[in-house]
């Protein structure tokens, strides 16, 4: 885990693009943070993908704040929460209970910091929901910019089918990732978002909010 001093210098709390009501740790240069983190620890560290508020998370958070009826008085789980920006939005929109879930312990630690900074009431857990298929008592499932890796994406897609059969509401924020399932029921929103060209290889991505 990077020190708080390093995070405050290179990954401070910033207003989320398009969603300034929420502040989250975000780095202007992930690669500079990565280099400094390895120097601080004296060892190789994984790429700090948790230091970015990814475009789909930005748009999904804004969408939830604009549509509080979707989450009000409901139990919510965000799978692969990263910095938990969508979870924070769900909490602010009036969800009864929000669980921010991620298997990456550092991402979950950053999510805790973001939640505390925004005074959001969140639960956190690191259970591998793709392996267990469990979502507890939640009836609204959130996921954003998840579908990078083929194997995990295919497994999650199968779980989406199972959860949908139980009449759970599933909202996916996707910015054109390779393995996003195509059998969604409707597109609730489409929006172009500026992105980090060093990370994305382009300057803009189209984000869609999909209901399954």
- The largest beta-sheet arranges its strands as 5-4-3-6-7-9-8
Content-based structural category? alpha/beta
Number of helices: 8
Biggest sheet features: 7 strands, mixed
Concise overview:
The chain is of the alpha/beta class and 212 residues long.
Can you walk through the features of this model?
The model has no long low-confidence stretch (mean pLDDT 93). Strand 6, helix 7 (150-165) and strand 7 form a beta-alpha-beta unit. It is built from eight helices and nine strands. It has 212 residues and is of the alpha/beta class. 42% of the residues are buried. Helix 3 runs parallel beside helix 4. The strands form two sheets. It has a seven-stranded mixed sheet, with helices on both faces. The protein has a single domain (54-211), classed as Vaccinia Virus protein VP39 (Rossmann fold). It has helices spanning 4-10, 30-41, 55-66, 85-92, 105-117, 129-132, 150-165, 197-200; strands spanning 13-16, 19-25, 75-79, 97-101, 123-125, 140-144, 169-174, 186-194, 204-211. The termini are far apart.
